[in-house]
Design a protein that fits this description.
The chain contains three helices and 42 strands. The chain is mainly β and 704 residues long. The longest helix is centred in the N-terminal third of the chain and has 22 residues, at 5-26. The two termini are 40 Å apart.
């Protein structure tokens, strides 16, 4: 019997009882209304989604999305964004991995895990970022945090009960205080999570007469402490200073059970592998920003410093049971990874009277990582110890001119980046990895207004995509005696050339894109004939190209607002080591339906799906998902939301490919089916007088 079922029913019943109370409170007799008019509130209906030239902006603070317990899950519900099954990477349909920005600073996945949803004002998906942003990305996810314009004190306490395969709990505390020119914010979250995952791979190696299949299941017990604080000081109308720090501490216990059937020529083995795993992760990130306007020459200057540290340790003890005999110790594994990243940037913006704007800036970033591996093999009574050090320095400069000539808006810019990389094991005399390269990244955009409702734009951009720092370490994961997951210290960056054109009519748009990638990164197999071990790791492929047709079609009818994204992709991946299967167009569909119902209710029905994907090397199955939610605010300060995610439990992901003469069929099961109840209580006060200050501009990804 599910012990949480009565609790589920109680919470659902409580939600609707609050609804009935709220309705009763709204039926106040006329003769009880005071004649004193203390306050008049003029409210304007906020659009959750807005579309400008294919760039989608989401109002998180004033929508039902503010009730989602964490930022990564929030992003997974937005149009064209896809989050990986392990929630450690994000991609945008047809545009690969995006840059992620919080206000003016670039961040990574760890920052998203450490960012409280209650602190987010808006999220914007920018399809054609300018040269101001790093060249490492063809799209930008820009997260803008809340800052108050009035003197205020406000605190929110939130509780989310989430029911997946097991119970998950999110407890959050968020507070802000603003007095005159000073505003500070603080947040603390404690999460008790029990995620589940399962995947299986069935592969054959005809050259070695090997056929193998494994099925692995992992239940985790995660304890997360997420906390952060920020200070914002408004020096005057145009200048400000800000400092912020956020952190996430996580302890993860996850036993892994694997069942393997392996046939090597005439020898068949059934192996049950059990591993105890203890993982600890510590992440901290800090920003120091200063914005200054030099009025004498009407020039805006922004300077920022950033420091990040990510420290991860993984201890594992592995046992194998061959052919229903008994468990015997196989390996004891102790792996550590630590990376420090420091960066500084400066941006200068000069506006001219003829609507021209000139921007120039620079960036310096330095990363230093260490990965230590100590593996003891019980079968051979042998210990293997390796220490790998990695250093990278990046120096970049950019320049951009934008403006308007008659009906033509234009932006012309370029970015130059020099990268210096060194990697070596401590036992090596000379560096194993030694790279020094400079790249030039031009970006051009022209937009022509046909009339007041229609415009057309053309874009060209060259960009780069670098692997994150943990991908460039020496870590491995033991699956069974024949199979390892590994990282790859030899990965090279991917170079992307892209041209696109967008037609906008009112708030609807259609965009056509062609891009070509050199050295794209995908999974690959490598078989060691001497050790009889298969290794699965990322590898640079030869090339990738695609045509993308993207329709953004929002509609509004009375109380119903619908946001539609329809993307058609024809993608072709090629590599000399892989068998080319077929390349056929596939479609991605996203539809968010928001209903403003009587009595202050808001309901959402969201559909997401992708058809079968034939990408040349990889074939992936069709998938679809339906989410539902209803939300209501009671007594002004209480907000309750009921969410149903992946209602029909369509969670299978399948992938077929042949690489290095190895045939593979993989299946991944993700714990996405969820019922969650969110309760948020807000209290505080806001003064009537408003401090008139200029809003912050709404414009370490690899620290992972």
């Amino acid at each position: 019997m599910n012990l949480f079922l009565p609790f589920k029913l109680f919470l659902i019943l409580l939600f609707f009882l609050l609804s009935l109370i709220g309705n009763a409170q709204s039926k106040t007799p006329k003769d009880s209304i005071s004649n004193d008019l203390n306050e008049v509130v003029v409210s304007k209906s906020q659009k959750t989604f807005t579309n400008t030239n294919g760039n989608i902006k989401v109002d998180v603070a004033n929508s039902i999305y503010s009730s989602i317990p964490n930022t990564v899950d929030l992003l997974s519900k937005l149009p064209t964004i896809q989050v990986s099954s392990d929630k450690e990477s994000i991609s945008v349909i047809g545009r690969g991995n995006p840059l992620i920005y919080i206000d003016n600073q670039r961040v990574g996945m760890n920052d998203l895990h450490a960012l409280a949803v209650a602190d987010i004002k808006t999220i914007e998906i920018i399809q054609n970022p300018s040269s101001k942003y790093e060249a490492e990305g063809r799209s930008v996810i820009l997260i803008t945090r809340k800052f108050s314009k009035k003197d205020s004190f406000r605190t929110e306490v939130s509780e989310v009960a989430s029911f997946r395969k097991k119970y998950n709990n999110y407890l959050g505390f968020n507070t802000s205080f603003k007095k005159n020119k000073i505003e500070w914010k603080a947040n603390f979250n404690y999460n008790q999570l029990q995620p589940w995952e399962n995947h299986s791979i069935d592969y054959q190696i005809p050259d070695a007469d090997i056929a193998s299949k494994y099925d692995v299941t992992a239940y985790s017990k995660k304890r997360q402490f997420v906390f952060g604080g920020s200070l914002f000081y408004k020096i005057n109308e145009d200048d400000y200073f800000s400092f912020s720090v956020n952190s996430r501490l996580q302890k993860d216990l996850f036993p892994i059970n694997t069942i393997t059937d392996n046939k090597n020529k005439n020898i068949e083995n059934n192996v049950v592998t059990y591993s105890d795993n203890d993982s600890k992760k510590k992440f901290v990130n800090s920003f120091l920003n200063y914005n200054k306007k030099i009025k004498a020459i009407d020039t805006q200057v922004f300077a920022g410093l950033q420091y990040s540290n990510f420290d991860q340790g993984l201890w594992s003890q592995v046992e194998n049971n061959y052919n229903n005999t008994q468990f015997e110790l196989a390996q004891l594994r102790d792996q550590k990874f630590n990376v420090n990243v420091f960066s500084g940037r400066i941006d200068v913006e000069k506006k001219f009277k003829n609507e021209m704007k000139f921007e120039i800036g620079g960036l310096y970033a330095a990363a230093d990582s260490k990965s230590d591996s100590d593996i003891f093999d019980y079968e051979n009574s042998k210990s293997e110890i390796n220490h790998y050090d990695f250093k990278e320095q990046n120096l970049a400069g950019y320049s951009q001119l934008s403006g308007k000539i008659k009906k033509v808006d234009f932006s012309v810019g370029f970015r130059v980046e020099n990268t210096n990389v060194d990697g070596k094991f401590k036992t090596d005399q000379l560096p194993l990895i030694n790279k020094n390269y400079t790249n030039f990244f031009p970006k051009v955009q022209f937009s022509v207004a046909i009339d007041s409702t229609k415009n057309i734009s053309v874009n060209y951009a060259k960009s780069i995509s670098r692997p994150n720092y943990s991908s460039l370490s020496q870590g491995t994961t033991y699956i069974n005696p024949y199979f390892l997951y590994a990282r790859n210290i030899n990965l090279d960056p991917t170079i992307v050339n892209e041209i696109s054109s967008t037609f906008q009519y009112h708030n609807k748009s259609v965009k056509f894109t062609y891009y070509q990638n050199t050295n794209p990164v995908y999974n690959s197999f490598f078989f060691d004939t001497e050790l009889n071990i298969m290794t699965f790791k990322d590898e640079n492929f030869d090339r990738e190209s695609a045509f993308v047709l993207d329709f953004e079609l929002p509609f509004t009818y009375k109380f119903w607002t619908i946001t539609n994204s329809l993307v058609f992709v024809s993608e072709k991946i090629e590599d000399a080591s892989a068998v080319f299967l077929s390349s056929k167009p596939y479609a991605y569909y996203y539809s968010n339906n928001e209903f403003k119902l009587p009595k202050g209710y808001t309901a959402i029905l969201a559909l997401r799906g992708v058809t079968k994907q034939n990408k040349g090397v990889f074939e992936r199955n069709a998938r679809a998902m339906v989410d539902m939610a209803v939300s209501k605010t009671f007594f002004k300060n209480w907000n309750c939301s009921l969410n149903f995610n992946n209602v029909f439990k369509k969670i299978d992901e399948e992938e077929v490919f042949t690489i290095n003469n190895i045939n593979s069929k993989a299946r991944y099961l993700v714990d996405e089916h969820e019922i969650s109840i969110s309760i948020r209580y807000s209290f505080g006060k806001v003064k009537e007088t408003e401090f008139k200050g200029k809003r912050m501009e709404e414009n370490s990804e690899r620290v992972n």
